Amino acid sequence: MARKPEDTAQRYIGEEDALGELRDRAQGCTACDLHADATQTVFGEGPSTAVVMFVGEQPGDAEDQDGHPFVGPAGRLLDKALADAGIDRRKTYVTNVVKHFKHIVRGKKRLHRKPNVLEIEACRPWLDAEIDRVGPEIIICLGATAAKALYGNDFRVSRQRGAPVPSPLAPRAFATVHPSSLLRLPDSESRASAYEEFVRDLRAAVEGVSAARAPKS
């Protein structure tokens, strides 16, 4: 059963809140139970004038501790891929569908767990607000969880990666794999091949579009 707006993060969001205000409000979000085991809310980051927005699944262990999105191993790989694709990360907006780290503790490690539908629905108003405030020209989903959340449950990254997706959320929308999936590949040859394909996806998504634009008036 879908959650009612009052049972989601929507209750924290003011219609006139700017990105900075949203980020501050999100720190106290208890719309789902994930906040209880997380260190902190990890909100999106980047300029409000960003042309390109990247949307992943959720913060990982490093992000949960640091408080910033995409700063762990997958984030470092994304940084490298963006540089190779000719995209300046500093001019993009990076965020996640879910703002708290969902995990299970095994020994001394905190292992990632996939967020469920109710957790995604509870957190979705934050992402909708980010998209509204930034107004990106291009949205690129990283991984299946983000792609299904934004483009519908029938979306399959395995079949539709790199292809334009009709979406009311932005003039141009795409999806590709999450960089963490490259790190899990078993050998260097497969990782190198997958990395090249990932960079091609990123490059194709922004082809013909400048990564920067004039500030909003």
Describe this structure as you would to a colleague:
The chain has 217 residues and is of the alpha/beta class. It has one domain (5-205): Uracil-DNA Glycosylase, subunit E, CATH 3.40.470.10. It is built from eight helices and six strands, in the order H-E-H-H-E-E-E-H-E-H-H-E-H-H. It has helices spanning 19-26, 61-66, 73-84, 117-134, 144-151, 157-160, 179-183, 188-205, and strands spanning 52-56, 93-96, 103-106, 109-112, 138-142, 172-176. A four-stranded parallel β-sheet has the order 2-1-5-6, sandwiched between helices. The termini are far apart. The model is unreliable at 212-217 (pLDDT under 50).
List keywords for this structure.
217 residues; four-stranded parallel β-sheet; two-stranded antiparallel ribbon; 8 helices; disordered C terminus
